[in-house]
Amino acid sequence: MLDWKDIDTVLLDMDGTVLDLHFDNYFWEEFVPARYGEMHGLSAAEASVMLRARYEKVKGTLDWYCLDFWSDSLALDIPRLKEDIRHKIAIRPHAVDFLEQLRASGRELMLVTNAHPQSLALKMQTTAIDRHFHQTVSSHSLLRAKENDGFWHALRERHPFDPARTLLIDDSLPVLRCAQREGIGHLLGVQQPDSQRPALAPSPEFRQISHFTDIMTGLEPR
Ligand SMILES: [Mg+2]
Questions:
Q1: CA of 139 relative to ligand 1 center, distance in Å
Q2: Domain locations in the chain as residue ranges
Q3: Which residues are paired to 193 by β-bridges?
Q4: Residue 153 above 90 pLDDT?
Q5: What pairing do the DSSP bridges indicate for beta strands 166-169 and 208-209?
Q6: Domain 4-20+90-215, CATH 3.40.50.1000 — does that match?
Q7: With 0-12 CB in 10 A as exposed, 13-18 as middle and 19+ as buried, what is 117?
Q8: Ligand 1 centroid to 13 CA: how many Å?
Q9: Tell me: the pLDDT tens digits for 1-51?
Q10: pTM of the predicted model as reported, rounded to 2 decimal places
Q11: Nearest residue to 148 via CA among 63, 60, 17
């Protein structure tokens, strides 16, 4: 699936790639609608319909990932609510083994996420996976989301890497497409980002890994 000899730098998405997307799906689709419904005297189903419409309006923009935006527009303390269910944050199977092997192989390792810095901090405090990475980058620090044009160029200016010799693993198709347009040479999707939901349909554009073990063969020091 991959020839590791061609790869010096590995960029990894956080939610749905290194971490189970279940936390985020549960948070936005069940936990927040329930709290919002309580506040406004709506059933969970009614609140869900209302919130989905609001989510749709900002999907793919930095606001969608911005905790301040949602705290303000829903009048809920979103960071606090995330803390309340932090026990649901989980590392995907084999991720730690993969990160340890990557790090030992001498490759540059960067976590690149659309998560808001406060979300990133909560997940790092809970899982301690940041110790495996040379850099952890929130797209908020570059003022655009990973699926927005120019993101990958801006990332290279901040943290130089050779795009042709770089692998990105990300569960988001729009993100993979944007990285491809901006010259990232090796791109892989994730078959089942949320352990509680069925696998995604196979993509004709990008190969998907089911587990990191799919690509750990031949991962020798460069
Ligand atoms: Mg993701």
A1: 12
A2: 4-20+90-215, 23-87
A3: none
A4: yes
A5: unpaired
A6: yes
A7: middle
A8: 5
A9: 799 999 999 999 999 999 999 999 999 999 999 999 999 999 989 999 999
A10: 0.96
A11: 60
